[in-house]
Structures are given as structure tokens and as C-alpha cells.
Batch of 3 targets.
Target 1
Amino acid sequence: MTPPKKPVRSLGMGLAIATTALSFSLGTTALQAQTVPTSRPVAQNQVSYASLIADDLRLVGQSGIVASGNVEIFHNGVRLQAQELQYDRRNETLTLVGPIHLTDGPERIILADSGDLSADLRNGVLRSARIVLDQQLQLAAGEIGLVDGRYARLTDTVVTSCQTCAENPVPLWQIRARSVVHDQEGRQLYFDNASFLVKGVPILWLPRLRLPDPTLKRATGWLLPELRSSSRLGTGLATPYFIRMGDHRDLTLTPWLSTKTRTLEARYRQAFRTGDIEFNGAWSSDDLLTDNRWYLFAEGSFALPRDYRLDFDIEATSDDAYLLDYGYSGKDRLDSAISVSRARRDKFVLAELTHFNTLRSSESNSTQPTIVGDFLLHRRTEPAWIAGELDWQIEGHTHYRSSNTPGDAGRDVARLSARTDWRNSFTLNNGMVFATMAGGDLDYYTYTDEAAGEQEGLFYTGTIGAELRWPLIRREQSGVTQLLEPVMQIFYGRSNREAIPNEDSVLLEFDEGNLWSDSRFAGSDRVETGLRSNIGVSWTRQDPAGWSLALVAGRVYRENGIAALTPGSGLEGTSSDWLLAGQINFANGLSVSNRALFDDHLDFSRNETRIHWASDRVSLGSSYLWIESAPAENRPQASEWAFDGSYKFNDNWTGSADWRYDFINDRAARIGLGLEYRNECAAIDFTASRRFTRTDTIKPTTDFGVTVKLSGFGVNTGGRTLARHCNR
């Protein structure tokens, strides 16, 4: 019969025998039963206690102890498990027979067949051993030497984070080295005579190599390179170098050398107590242009006292085509801005200054507003002196063009505005909701370089209105809930701002978001006036089976047309186009939405459809847009189909594709393909894309890329759940 586990309790430096306890001294360490000490540092000259548990315990002479059967020692946060332990008091050593399991921290486990350790478990040798770091990286060696509880020196080492099995003993990747030193405190791995192998085939040899262990999230050093290939820039390697500049900032430099470009990319990040900043940029010397090329994007955000917030961003580039040539951004108008804002439940404050830079060949920065300033104070109240809700705003705006040409090409504008809106609603006995509304604007305009006939001065707008809603709810025994809500609004307004040049209200949108608005102009230069009404209905249906449907239909009627509501907007004339918008969501992840504008003859001015479906293996998204031309907005007719999707072939392989086709020009605008392999130890991405954009400065290009990430060196591929399992 196996004897029960017997605790061993220290009584000091001497050795005593009692009926229920045995004790011995491990150097300056005493073993105490059933009391597992914390891992706090032990003060100098203070006894550090430990615990020993075993199935069988025997004394050997006056200076030795033999423990066998499920042996466990707890000491200063270190846990040692072995099958047998021999303690030599004279030499203060432990001889261990495995299997041995040594845990000296939450992120490092050492396994071995046999070994010899010092009494404090900080020094010694373990044979046929393996270290597991952060449950990711495995280091197998013929022998491991422990030094001062900090260093582990491994000989004839194999390092990998891949799962290996008897039927598949060769990992996807491994590093073989003559020796490896793991600095647990510095969280670094130092390799001597290292060879990198893929499926057992040597790929790279280095005499010396230093890598972070998986517990270190940020460390100075080279990152894995990325293979890039472009039809315009050639083929080459991008090799990022990460520089840790303290706990709160870092710099990544990425040289990219190819057959046609010499590029240095940079990213700088810094976190502060109240915010953070990030700078991204690049400098290039290539065969496309004779001049050096560059770009800089930066952004930052900081919390200020009294709930204010400071935000800024910088966007600059050397030429119109650089961002697209190198794939850094698809933007064709750059904006650099700084703003201070505060948002509270009933108040919003914003002050912002923005600089615009157009990259479009059809536009000139001298005739576009390049410097724009805005100020807004918005307050919502429920005053005691009047029923309902009162909303008021004070706004300032200015913009500047460098051109001195009078009119649209050079006009500079400054405006100060005040606006107030009032609304009061109440429910009638039959369930209808009736609301009354009123609003007024005062705007003062001043110009330089204005065209003849454009007026400065004070302008006003006044609007009154009423609204009637009748929400009808139906709940069925099956659990289905339906809400039908007809809505009718009527407004009347007057204004004297017809002679103001239209700068901020040129682009028009008509959708379910502004169907119930008193004006659909985006800015202040134009407002809807006269007698008009908004009529429509909304219907929603919620089914307990997991699907839902929402529909909105409506139209705007006017006594007289408004000249600023131009053809192509769907709002021109005395009656707008019909607006019909709907969305249906299914329990299986499929959703379909559509928004259409059409007249009484079913001639469409706009039609947009979006479809999305997501499941465990498939993600698909597709959209189609048709919109007629709007000459007043400089908007050509558009007809485009876009598609993006991914398919998970199995737990490791995922394919993706995206596509955008221009039916007006009868050609693709962009095509992209991707293939990703991901498991517990590696992630490999293959990408290919073709951009068909062509202008005077931009040419079509084809790009290829290969990115490899290896888990276990400060990188988590997110594939631990994909670890392969060995057959038993």
C-alpha cells in the first residue's frame, strides 16, 4: 500500500525527527509543510520557507533525505515536481529523477528527464530538457544549465512554436542552434550558430542571432521582412527595424530596396498621460520621377481640462501620384486640421482650422478653398418659460483662396451665424403625436474678390412648421411585432439670401436621414423656403424567428420649385422623386438594403443596393450604384459594381477577393486577390492587386506581396486555437 503524503516541517538548521514531521535545511532555505509562500523577494539574512510533499520520505544518515513518489517543492514562487529527489545537505544539492516539471514563473515551464539543482533551485543542470515560454515557444535541448535563476543555457537546441507529433515530427519551421541562452529578466533569446529551417530544409544561417521571447511585447530589433513586387516599382524586400524608445514611444524604420526604387518608410508612436500621437511617412528615390518623393501623415489626440479635447492630423505629399504609386493612400484631397472640442449631454463646442490640398488633375489649389476655419457652439435646453425643447447655435466660418480672380475662382468668405430651433410635441387621445416647430437664422457675410452683384451684409431665414405622426403597433400571438407610422409635415419659410454665392450647399443628398427635415441643404448658403410638405410612411417588422424588415417611403411637395435644387439631386421641381429605402436582415447573417429615387414614370435618378452575408466560413459583400449626372455638382453619371468576400477553406486556409467594375467606362477599376495560411506557429499572407486608374500623372499598376509572421518571438498569430493535435 502506498503510504500517505507526509508534510516536512523545518525546525531550523538542525535535523529532528517527530512522529508527524521531518525537517531539514536547504542552505538558507527551510522547507515548511502545507505553507506555500508568496513570490515576494526575501530580505537579506531572513529565512525563506519552502514546502516539500511526497508519497514516501526517508532519512539517509545525518545529511541526506530521499523523497519519492509525486514529489513537489514550493519555494519563492517556484514549483518543482519530480518522481524522486535526493537531498545532500553537505553540498546543498538536489538530485532529481524525472519526469521533472519546473515552473519558475507564470510564463516559463521547464521539463526534463533528470537533473541536479542547488538547494535554492536557482542553479544546476537539467538533462534531456525542454523549455516552454508563454505556452507558445518550445526550446528542446540535450542539456539546460540554470544560472542564478535568471539565465538558462541550452546546448544542441531546436526552437519552434509549431506542434510536432510522432506521425509528423518535422515542424513547419524551426531554428537549430549550437547553443541558446534565455535571459528571463531581459526576456531575450541569444542564438549561437543558428540555422533557420522550413519543413526541414535549411533556408538561412547566422553565426549570431538575438530574438525577443514571446513574453516581450516591444523590443528593439529587426522584424520579419515583407516581399513586395510592383509593375511600376519593381521587386524587393521591405525589412522593418523596430526601435524601442522607452515604455511609451517607439520608432519603426523600413528600408525598401527594389529594382526601381530606394525607399525608407518610418512610423513614430508616442503615448502621453493625456493622449497619443502617431507619425507615418516615407522618402523615395525612384525611376518614375527625377525628384525625390515623400509623404507624411500624422495624427494625435489629447484630453484637455474641463472635458475639452485637442485633435490634429497632418497630410502632405511631394506630388499628386506618390500615394497611389506606393499604395499608401487612395485619397485625392488631403486635409490637415487642428481642432478643440467638447461634447456634453446638452452642449457641443468646436473650433477647427483645416488646410486642404487637392491632388486631382482637374482642380487647382489656387482656386479651391485651401484654408478653412470653423467655430460652433451648440446648446439644447428645455426652458421654463416655454413648453418644448429649444435648440440654438452660434457658428463662425471662413475660407481663403490664394487666387485673386473675382468670383468662384478667388472669392474669400467670412460668415457669422446664429440659429435657433424650437419644437414641442404631445400625444392626442387617439394615439397621434402632434408637434409644432419654429426656427430662425441670422447670418452676416463679408467677401473679398467677390463677383459683381454678390451682396455682403445681414441675411435672415424664418421657418414655421407642424408635424403629425400616427404610430400603430401590432403584436401577434406568434411573437411578431409590427410598427406602421405614417408621417406628414408642413413647413413655411422665408429668406432674403438669394444673392449669396453658393459655396457650401452645392452637393445634395436625399435619403431617409433627411426626409423629415425642414431643409436638405448641407450648409448655410442655401435653405429651403416657401410652402412645402414632407409626406411618407415607415414600417418595421420584427419576427421571433430572427429576421426583421424595415421600409421607408416618402416624398417632398412644394408650392414653387427652388433653383438651387438642381437636376440630378432628386429634389428639383415642385415635387421630389419618390424615396424608397428598405433593409431586411435574416437570422443566417444575410442582410439586404436598397435605396432608390424615382419619378412618377419609374425613371430612376439613383439606385443603390447592398448585400452582406457572414457565416462561419463565408463572408460576402456586394454593392451596386447607379446615379444620374448632376452638372451643377460637377458629378458625372456613375454605374459601379463592387464586391468583396472571403472563404475559409479549412481551419488554416482562407481566400479573399475584391472587385470594383465601372460600367460607364466598361472596365474594372480595381481587382484584388488574397490567400492566407494560419496555424499555431505561423501566418503567411499572399496578396495580388491590379489598379486600373489612369490620369495624366497616375498609371495603372499591378502589385504582389508576401508577408510572414512567426509566433513565439513577440508575435501572436492568433492561431493557438488552430493547433494541430497528435493522434493517441
Target 2
Amino acid sequence: MAPFCIVLAVILVILQTVISSYLKRRGTDDAEVAGDASKIVTESIENVKTIQALTRQREILEDFRLASILPHRRSITRGLFQSLSYAISTSYSSFNFFASYMFGLWLCLNDFSSPFIVFQVIEALNMAAMIISTSASYFPEYIKARISAGLMFRMMRENPKIDNLSQSGVLAPIEGNIQLQHVRFAYPNGMKYMTLNGLNLEAKYGQTVAIVGASGCGKSTVIQLIERFYDILGGTLRIDGQDIRQINVRHLRSSIALVGQEPTLFNLSIRENIGYGLESVPMEKIKAAAKLANID
């Protein structure tokens, strides 16, 4: 009697494990597939003013709809398997009772066992089944947690190509002579379109240089390359005659002051906002900067 019930329990547990493993693999793939739709939403929110100005709302909405079709279909299939997993876990005790009593009845009718022994075995196995079924009901949530944690840990283990925490690189004082020769660059999410294609630019120490052009021509891109938020795809970018990729990233950025088109103030004092990002700034320099900005 007991071996039969144990074999039945093992079969159900194996089935539950197989379904859970499949859900874990599928969940990882589904998260990657849904990334395109999420990217469209994120970019639309970040650039909502531009989208409204160009009246591209309908086109963006259509792009999002098309990007959501495949994730929607995959989510329906995943939901069916999750329902099957939940159904197996919740009906485990009932199915175990049914099979055990039917087999126990056959044993009693053929004088292989007594009703008392059958009842004892069934109740003992039923307690074990209840524990297993209670634990198994959390399997779908466990799989979701594993997938989410896996994505987070994978992101945390990634080594950035441009590491601002790296100790490597040249730490020589930066004077500020900038030279771009035949620079080619395209953003990672739009490699088909070259934002900069053969740009030549030189800015010497002490000079004031203005980059003028239409929206999207690459003005901000040049600044981002000088701060080394991205690496160029072709040509050379030198600072004081040194290839920018050979200069320590943290040292480079600490030597540059960038004021954005739409500056944002942190919920700190004016002094802390002026010196934000710098490890130690004398009060005299803070006051001098405030005076230059007419906020002293």
C-alpha cells in the first residue's frame, strides 16, 4: 500500500518540477521579449514633449501595440501552464485520496490487507501530501522570484565597457586641449544611423567654442563623447594629445564641469548643489562659482 502511494506522490512531484522548470525558462525568455515594448514606453515618457511637438502620438502607440503582440501571446501560454501547475498542487490531496482508497479497497477485497492498516497508511500519507501540496502551491511565485532575482544578479555582475570605478588609466593633470579627428559615432540603439560621420573639431585651452546646428545634428553627442559616456566608433578623440580611452574615467570626469540644457537641483543646499560630484571643494571656490552665476 505505502509503496504505491509513494510512487504516485513521486510522479506528481516530478510532473510539478518539470512544469516549474519550463516556466522558469519561459519566464526568462518572456522578460526579454517584453523588453522592446518597455523600451518604447520608457523612451516615449522621457521624450513626451518632442513626441507631442512632432504629433507622433499615433505612430508611437502603433509601435507599442505591435511590440506588445508577441509578449501578450506568450503570456497567455505561460498563464495556461501556471494554471496547470496550480491545479496539480491544489488537487494533489484529493487525487491521492481517490487513488489510495481505490487501491486500498482492492487490497481488502482480495484479503491482502485489513481496513485498519489501509486507513493508517492513507492518513499518514495524507499528512505528507498536505505538506507537499501546500509547498507546491507557492511554486509559481517561487519561479517568478527566481527569474526576477536572476535578472537583477545578472545585471549586477555585468562589467561596463566604460567603468568609472576602475583604477586603471592615466592620471596626469588635464589642461583642456581637445581634438576630434574624423570621428564617427552612432548610438547603440540606432547603429544604422551615424550621428557623427567624420567630424573634425579642435578646442584649445582657454578658448570658447560654440557648436551650432539643428536639433539632432550631434551637438550634445560631442559633449557626451568628451565626457566619455560613450566610446567613438571610428577616428580619434584626444585630450592634451592623449587618447581619451587611455585616461582614467573618474579623473577625466572630475576635471569637467557640465551644465545641462535643463539643469536639475537636488534637494540640498546651494553649496552642496554647486559642489555636487566633487569630493572636496573649498568654500572660496563655491563662493566664486556662485558669484559668477550671479547668485551670491
Target 3
Amino acid sequence: MIYKDKTNKDLYIVIQLTAKLLHDILYKKKTLTLSQVLDNSLPDIRPVLHSISYYVMRNLGWARTISKILIKKFPNSEFESLFLVSLCLIKSIFKNENSSNKDPIYNDYTIVDQSILAAKSYYKTFPYAGLLNAALRNFLRNMHKFNALVKNSLEAKFNYPEWWIKKIMYYYPNNWQKILSSANCISPLHLRINRRKTNINFIVKLFNENNIDIKVINDFSVLIKNSIPIYNLPGFNEGLWIVQDIKAQMAAKLLDIDDGMNILDACAAPGGKTTHLLEIANIQLTALDISKKRLIKLKENLERLNLYNKKNVHIICADACDLSNWWDGKYYDIILSDVPCSGSGVVRNHPDIRWMKKIDDINIIIETQRNIINTLWKTLKPGGKMLYSTCSIFPEEGELQILEFLRSHLDAKLLPSPGQILPIENLEGGNGFFYAILLKNK
């Protein structure tokens, strides 16, 4: 469902900004995620920009398929992006059988009018405002015909790139449709309670007093049922909780962490798992990440949760594969290796991921993962454990990656582990992850 402001004022600006975001994702493959861009947008338009942008990403396959029928050749990529956004907004008029609200969010006249205004407000699309008007009105007149033409298109039906769909079909022949459909839903908001500061009873009381509907998942996790910006939730500034998917919360609990242990959190930013490790026990922790910007966010999270102490927390910006640049030679008791991945398990949270990735990217990602865990293994003491973690549902990044690692490391033993977790539970169930616990033989 699309959020609508009280008036249609400045809708064309939101359409224009959404088109720019889409253009950056499709043509510039910007690594800055959609959520990060939206966080930096103007507060007064952020809710509607967030809603429309995410809706576009979740319906882009349909729009791309329809657009190729309506316009054989786009005058430029900026026009194409604007046209795709406009088509998705028109799709929002259709009755949604999963929604209790059957009324259109914006009427067709408003969408066409504001889309044309957006075109006229940017020099690269201004000359083609007439083409945009004609194409949109053609679709509105004949939408049933056009929808019938694309009914057999996998990309139009499931709203993923075709290569992505075929990969899921190949690996999960019995439930591929459920995986694709559930991952294309709105993500649930889970909070992990900071056990160093509070407890579940206080959190329940705090949220009830503020009329916020929650569901208790366990003693340290709750699900927020209201649609509220996290910064407006009680306890944020006080560091009483942190946003973390319920399946991501499994990582720290899979390791037998005791006080005094020397632990490495590799690829640590933005710090969800880092903070969890520090909440569980009094440890020496090294948080390693290659991104300076993401480490700034990690430090902010540590400080907000009151978990940052220079004596026991060491934040290092370096390439995990370059040991000479960061490792002091002291072996780790435990390593959490949350390696870079395709993000195929967290499409709910980051619906732009599927459109940024190409099939050729997967092989590069797999090689990066292999280099990281091969290097980190050298820093683990005999008898120590490494938790290999990804937020992917592609087996090449999970089970197959670990099988290859075990073949090449005779001193490694796979312990009982969750393995592949698919995002096919009810919408409160969380995202897709892979976990493997590896023991280094003495």
C-alpha cells in the first residue's frame, strides 16, 4: 500500500526524485542503498517518497515488461526511469486483493498530470512530455489488453529479473513461488532489546504507554506492528533497543561466548551483530570492516547502546584479506564472518537489491567470500569456532561455499548448524540467512 499525503501538492517532485533514484540503481548501479538515500531526504516528503520508491522497486518487473510494449525505443534512460515510475503508480490504482483498503491511492488523472509536470521540470525529459502523456493514456485506455499480453511473463508476475527467478526455480523447485512472493512483501520491524540496559517487561510497559502495538517474540525481541519511523519510537535515544531482523539475531546466540574471550567480528558494519556480542558477555572484540562510512554507523550504534569502550572494543577499517594491515598476531577464540553477499535473502528490507545485481556479479561475490574466510581461518586458534554467515538464499554463497571450504581445509569440522533459512514463513518470521559453525581441529 502506498502512503499518501493529505494533498497532491508536490507529488511531481516525489515522482521526479523516485525516477532519479531508479535511474541511479538501474544505470549507475550505485552501492548506496535505497534506504540510506531516503534517510537523507527532506523530512516533509520522506514518508511519501519512501512509500512510492519501495512500491516501484516491488513492481518494477511488471512495469519494465509493459513499458517495452508501449514504447519500442526510449529517447533516453532518464525518460525510461520516469515512465517506469509513472506506470507503477498507475498500477497502484488496481484493486489489491491483499489490502483491506480498496480505494485508489491516487486517481489516474492525478498520476498522469503530475508525471507530465515532473517531465517538464527536468531538461532531459522536458522534450518528451508529450510522448509520456500519450503512452500513459494509451495504457489507461487499454490496460486490460496490455496486462493480458504480459500475463505469461515471469518478470511481470514476480517482479524480479528473469535470471534471479530461474535461479530460485532451479534450487527450490517445490517452493520457489512462495519464496519469491514472500520476499516481495513489506518487511516486519523487529527490535532486539539491549539486555545491558533494560528487559522485556519494561519495554512492553513503555510501548503500551505510548500506544504502540507490539508482539513479544522472546525475552529479548519484539515485533512492531505500527508503521512508525524508528527514530520516533520510545527508547531509541536512550539505547534501549536496536533494529535487527529476528533471523539475524540468531548469529550471536549460535556461539558459546564467555567472558574474557578474544573475538573477531569481520565485515562488522553497521554493527547489529557486534552490539549483540557485546551485550552477551564481557569480551575483547575487534570490529573489522572495509567501509569507513559504515564503520561510522557501527560506532554510532555502539555509543547509542552504551557499549563502546576503547579498552575492549577495537574498530579497524581494513580489507579482511590483507592480514598485514590489521592483524596483530593474537589468535581469536571466535570469529563471526558475516561476509558480503548478494543480499538475496533480505529483499524485503532492500527491494532495490534485485535490480542492482547482475548474474555475473554472483561469481565475483563468491570469490570474495572464499578469499575472506580462507584468510580469517588463519587467525583462528585451534579449538576455536568460526560462524560463517550470509543474508543470501543462493546455495553458491551458502551450503556450496562451505562444502568447498571443508574440502580445502582438513582442519575444519562442520558443527550442527541452522544452514539455509528461507524467507517463507509468515510475515513476522524474518528474512533469509545462511549459518554454518566451523570448528578448527586442535
